[in-house]
Amino acid sequence: MTEEFRRHLAELAREDERLRAEHDEWMAHREPAGSPYIRKSQAGGSVLYREIDNASLAAPAPISGASYEEPGLNAVQLEELAHVIAEVQREFDAALERMQQRFLQMVVRLAVPAERAEESFYALRDRVARMEGQIERAVAQAIVELKSGNATVVAKPESDVVDLPNWRKRSDAA
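Below the sequence we write its predicted structure tokens.
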């Protein structure tokens, strides 16, 4: 902590203590809350009504001379206001059109790569299905040949086994 920060922190602590002491003093001298608005009914069981001295004030009297029928604007002002509103509407429509175009461009930018990836996925899936079919046919043919006795089994010597080079990086080998 820097010395300036410590001084600032000490000043804040002193201010906090002063405000807490002021609040405690105010709480000690404040007037107690008034009597409750409702009291427990007496043994007779009758309802007690209490009138409040500070009831809400009456509504103010309407301003004389005010009329909703008198227009506040003259014809020239109304015409100018209509032009301003029309211009704002045109600007809003243009801004809305620009935002729609930007949104559509963003959707296209996001959708095209996804469509290409989907096409690649389906192409790879088709290739895998064709390879599975070829393997199944070759296995079925080999089984038929083995059962019929026409198959020739060739034993390969171990010298035909080739070791592949270590293609992994040293960090991946662990």
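The longest helix spans residues 75-148.
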